[in-house]
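anyone else get weird line breaks when pasting these?? whatever heres mine. first is seq + tokens for prot A
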Amino acid sequence: MIGSNSRRLGRLTLFMVGVMAAICFLSAGAFAQQGQGGQRGNRGQGQGQGRQGMGPAMLDRLHASVNELNLTDEQKPKIDEIFTKAKDDFEKMQPELQDLPMQERGTKVREFTQQLSTEIKAVLTDEQKAEFDKKVAEMQQQRGGQGQGGQGQGGQMRRMREAVEGVGLTDEQKPKVDAILKDMEDKVQQARQESQGDRQAMQEKSRAIATDTMLQLEQVLTPDQQQKLRESMRANRGGEQGGNGPSTRPADANPPTTQPEKKTSDR
């Protein structure tokens, strides 16, 4: 009996790792590197603002994309001036953004990007504007939907659903799983609002949501389906984080299996 319970606990723990990864991805956009700025200095701030949908690296990428629009000699210096000013303005914004609640920070970043887009389009022709919009959409898609308010939750939730649907659900399982995922999404939204930018609080709430979601899915999915879901989410996790994201593995996910070395006394 003990061995059976131990094996079941091991399966649930491993399954929870995958679900935790999905939960943390849903909340990562809002809390990326937040709370670590004091420990990592400017590096932490740069990473956090980059996840908000705009930052020095994103500005450089956007600038490079605009330069691909066959700009005229008259347009080029105007575009360069716009981006030079945008970088300066963004650097000046960072101290203010660090002190704002999550939602207000997202609003400020959206206003900044909208103003930048307006200034860029004022220099472009109608044909260039259409191509510019296309490039921006492609950049947002590559970031997994994070351009929408910096949350990235739409893209992550979609991938979570695709991963679950990819395990081969039966007609009886589909409505049950859909209800579980909808409940998870609602709880993540509520937890984000209640956390008010507190990354540690959000992580604790995420663990509770992951545990609840894991238990519900475990009651609906077969062992084979659970295995397929774990593998799918782990693959997505590796592609999303690139090895740089926060760890979502519980501390006891892989308990030591080696026996302590026996001491021998010299006689």
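and prot B, same format (seq, then tokens)
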Amino acid sequence: MFSTSLNFDLAVYECFAPLTSGGSIDVVTDVL
């Protein structure tokens, strides 16, 4: 789960770090 908004620059590192280590990303529209 992202701890920053997708519009924030640090979100890029949070997005690509799991992908480069072989993980996956699930996009959830509503956290609650």
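btw re prot B: The longest helix spans residues 10-20. The radius of gyration is 10 Å.
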